[in-house]
Design a protein that fits this description.
The chain is globular. Helix 1 crosses helix 3 and helix 2 runs antiparallel to helix 3. The N terminus is likely disordered. The chain is built from 13 helices and 14 strands. About 35% of the residues lie in helices and about 20% in strands.
Length: about 375
């Protein structure tokens, strides 16, 4: 006698195949003005989206990346997407193996992540279930922290931004430091002192150096951060230097964090023992599959994780990750995601729900926004 699992409809899902075409698009969203952190400056954000269909349903995913990721999807990944849509792990392994000779990090990882997100959305829609439920959500909403505080901001703009985060209910805020590749420590300390005075003792101040400092400079800055009550010191040195992170962590009280450039479980394993909280980015670390894998690895080592940027995409998986602290409510992504997608969840009281109240159908509840065409770079 055959058994039908309740998670899969009695209709023959075994006969379902991914249907073409796989659609890929590139969008560029300008920032309100020039923005910078300690090691990079930018004036726009690029998103590469992908849609995958099967059985009359469509899955939607994206990554913040280079337009080159679209080429990777079109030439290396899409031709492989002709199997069963419910067997995500098989599709994932096929794509990873096919990219062996071009490498699986960088923009290839971004491309793999976007496709994986679309496949999970498609799977949930085919099974007629909300994606957070399919992933095993255990919390009704996830705390977010306000993130931005770019080094290009003057004090008045920084104060207004922090005030906006507080009004939205955030109990933690993060600003950029390490200005001019760590050469402006005087200015860094002025901005940290300003931010600390604005948030007071009730909230947590977090800083992100984006790898701008040397080990010695990071240790020196860390001692000042401890005196100012800062609770989070992100990428004090480059995350490519785990030994350097370990040395900084040994000298400071505040949490030392890194991980936004993790592309797979091997990258995660290299950082787990040198950080207090491991950052994971679903648009870089292999989509929902990679995020869950890396978060489980961290949990096995007693380490918390935090979701880096892309708040709308992180909302479903964050609700299902027991060792997750919070989601980064990054200013650029919080502004552009409602332009890119319909059905994005909204922050209320410092919390982000797993799906929007007006989510569209099952899955993660988002679909491409018609008005996003205004920002599209690829042929319409």
């Amino acid at each position: 006698m055959s058994t039908t699992f309740p998670s899969e409809p009695a209709t023959t899902t075994a006969r379902l195949r991914i249907e073409g075409p796989i659609t890929v698009a590139v969008y560029r969203f300008p920032t309100p003005g020039p923005e910078a952190d300690g090691t990079l400056a930018w004036e726009s954000t690029t998103a590469v989206t992908v849609t995958v269909g099967a059985g009359g349903a469509t899955g939607f995913g994206w990554s913040y990346t280079s337009p080159a990721a679209a080429t990777v999807i079109e030439h290396h990944l899409a031709p492989l997407l002709d199997g069963r849509p419910l067997d995500i792990e098989a599709r994932r392994m096929e794509m990873v193996r096919a990219c062996r000779n071009i490498g699986t990090g960088g923009v290839v990882a971004h491309a793999l992540s976007a496709v994986d997100i679309a496949l999970w959305d498609l799977r949930a829609r085919l099974l007629e279930r909300p994606l957070p439920e399919l992933l095993g959500a255990t919390r009704a909403a996830t705390p977010v922290y306000g993130s931005g505080g770019f080094t290009t901001m003057d004090d008045n703009r920084l104060a207004r931004q922090i005030g906006g985060w507080q009004a939205a209910g955030c109990t933690a805020v993060k600003i950029k430091i390490g200005e001019d590749r760590g050469r402006r420590t005087d200015r860094d300390l002025e901005r940290i002192t300003l931010a600390a005075g604005l948030i007071g003792d009730r909230d947590t101040l977090m800083v992100d150096a984006n790898g701008a400092y040397s080990v010695a400079a990071a240790q020196w800055m860390g001692s000042r951060l401890d005196r100012l009550g800062v609770g989070w010191f992100e990428e004090p040195v480059t995350s490519d230097d785990p030994a350097g992170l370990r040395r900084v962590r040994a000298e400071v009280r505040c949490d030392v964090t890194a991980g936004e450039y993790i592309y797979d479980r091997y990258d995660a394993a290299a950082l787990i023992d040198v950080v207090d909280c491991l950052q994971l980015d679903v648009t870089r670390c292999g989509g929902y599959s990679g995020f869950r894998e890396c978060a489980a690895l961290a949990a096995a080592h007693g380490v918390d994780v935090s979701a880096h940027c892309a708040p709308s995409l992180h909302a479903p998986v964050a609700a299902a990750t027991g060792n997750l602290r919070h989601i980064e409510w990054f200013a650029d992504h919080a502004r552009l995601e409602p332009l890119l997608a319909e059905g994005t969840p909204q922050v209320a009281g410092g919390l982000l729900p797993p799906r929007a109240a007006d989510a569209i159908g099952n899955g993660h509840g988002m679909r491409p926004a018609p008005n996003a065409e205004h920002y599209r770079l690829t042929p319409r």
